[in-house]
Design goal:
- This protein is an alpha/beta fold.
- The protein has 14 helices and 15 strands.
- It folds into two domains: 16-85 and 331-412, Aspartate Aminotransferase, domain 1, CATH 3.90.1150; 87-324, Type I PLP-dependent aspartate aminotransferase-like (Major domain) (Aspartate Aminotransferase, domain 2).
- The protein has helices at residues 16-28, 37-44, 75-78, 87-99, 111-124, 135-150, 167-172, 177-180, 228-239, 260-264, 290-293, 313-345, 365-373, 399-412, and strands spanning 54-58, 61-64, 69-72, 128-132, 154-158, 192-195, 207-212, 242-246, 270-273, 284-288, 351-354, 357-361, 377-378, 380-382, 388-391.
- Bound molecules: pyridoxal-5'-phosphate.
- Residues 134-136, 139, 162-164, 213, 217-218, 246, 248-249, 274 line the site of pyridoxal-5'-phosphate.
Length: 417
């Protein structure tokens, strides 16, 4: 059954249906978006196939337009925490679509938005929120809130950090800065400093916001040393800086608890959430303490920060269902992650991360990712030098699917780094 099955490949990859669609896509999409084999292979210095085109997905399975079935160890960039197409999430989307597809952002709210804010406040322990449509939106909202609450312009972020690519977030993103930032650097402002992630904490006197991922995701599943986040938070508090945790990747059960800050025993002033929040709708939120959020002041009729689709009712309904479905899944995550980690370590690999957010240190993660794809397993490289293969599957992936992945991993024959 699609959802819990092992891979089944009917064609060579990409199959003819995917290939035809990718050829059409290449005519109409900005060439920087979807990597293609023909155009890029020589520049990249390694083999790269055209992608397969997804047609359907359930649980941990994805099926492409040629009927090839894959096991997705990326959870679609970490979005499908509850699995692709979770029945409760689909039912919520359908029911909400019948009554109200769109409300009016800051002007006329709807009940789902209010229910979701209440649930998020209960889950995070933070009082108020600002919705967005993407992770970057949540980061933008957090940076603006911190500016207002602290009265200062300086931002401290960290090497290897990834916070999104819109201009405000990009100023703080350091991951692959030569590619992502360099062409735009003159338009990014000079208010962000980057310090070593997990290293010495610099003087924070002019800093209004400290922005940190508690475990870096795209930066390579990097876990800071024990106690470092606590120290960072206490330094920031002492200096009067607002603490922003970017849990867009780590949030909603990914690392074994609801949010990573809870396992670290610290509380941020602002918390950015996205990805796994709805199981498949573009919705994000910046949650914050009343003290910090109220620095915005009350709306005088025209919101100082809003978007056309702010708190979209379908997204909120899906998120309510997704959070409900996570209740049963989250208690299983630590054991599943520990089992996968132990299996990889017993093969001589170093594994970093927590819960089901793991990075396996391998000599050539690009080649491994490609070899796995051709066996029907989707897993992406992460890290500045692609030093790890990232494993962030749907939280309910079956043991059979994980065993299948381990067999494919062995077959691909990667070397430890
Ligand atoms: C930690 C973190 N922050 C922010 C973002 C940006 O999110 P989005 O791509 O939805 O804008 C990402 C995306 O990968 C992320 O991993």
């Amino acid at each position: 059954m699609l959802g819990t099955t092992l891979p089944h490949l009917k064609t060579a990859l990409p199959g003819p249906g995917s290939q035809a669609l990718i050829d059409r896509l290449a005519q109409r999409e900005c060439p920087a978006i979807t990597a293609r084999r023909a155009r890029r292979a020589s520049e990249l210095g390694h083999d790269q196939d055209d992608p397969v085109v997804w047609a359907r997905a359930r649980g941990a399975n994805v099926e492409d337009v040629d009927g090839n079935v894959f096991v997705d160890l990326t959870a679609g960039f970490g979005v499908a925490t509850v699995g692709h197409g979770h029945p409760d999430v689909r039912a919520a989307a359908q029911a909400q679509s019948e009554v109200l597809l769109h409300a009016m952002g800051d002007a006329f709210p709807d009940p789902r938005r209010i229910e979701l804010l209440e649930l998020l406040a209960a889950k995070t322990g933070l009082d108020r929120g600002i919705f967005g449509s993407s992770g970057s939106d949540a980061v933008e909202a957090a940076l603006k809130t911190a500016r207002l609450a602290s009265g200062r312009t300086g931002v401290l972020a960290f090497d290897g950090g990834y916070h999104g690519l819109s201009y405000g977030a990009l100023a703080a993103t350091d991951y692959k800065s030569t590619a992502f930032r360099a062409p735009f650097v003159a338009q990014l402002g000079e208010h962000v400093r980057h310090a070593p992630f997990g290293g010495e904490i610099p003087d924070l006197r002019d800093v209004g916001a400290v922005l940190v991922e508690p475990i870096q995701g795209r930066g390579g599943i990097r876990v800071p040393p024990a106690g470092w986040l606590t120290e960072l938070v206490s330094h920031a508090r002492a200096a009067g800086a607002v603490v922003i945790f970017d849990e867009i990747y780590t949030g909603f059960g990914r690392t074994g608890g609801w949010f990573r800050f809870q396992a670290e025993g610290v509380r941020p002033d602002l918390l950015c959430l996205g990805k796994g929040m709805s199981g498949g709708f573009p919705i994000s939120v910046c949650m914050g303490t009343a003290e910090v959020m109220d620095a915005w002041g009350a709306s005088r009729g025209e919101a100082l920060h809003t978007q056309t689709f702010l708190g979209n009712p379908v997204g909120c309904a899906m998120s309510l269902a997704c959070i409900g479905a996570l209740e049963a899944l989250i208690p299983t995550v630590s054991a599943a992650g520990a089992g996968l980690q132990a299996s990889l370590e017993s093969r001589g690999f170093t594994v970093r991360g927590a819960g089901l957010m793991l990075g396996v240190e391998v000599a050539d993660s690009l080649a491994l990712s490609r070899a796995l794809l051709h066996q029907g397993y989707l897993a992406l490289p992460a890290g500045l030098r692609a030093e790890v293969l990232a494993l962030t599957p749907p939280l309910g992936i079956t043991q059979g699917q994980l065993d299948g992945f381990l067999a494919a991993f062995d077959e691909a024959g990667p070397c430890p780094r």
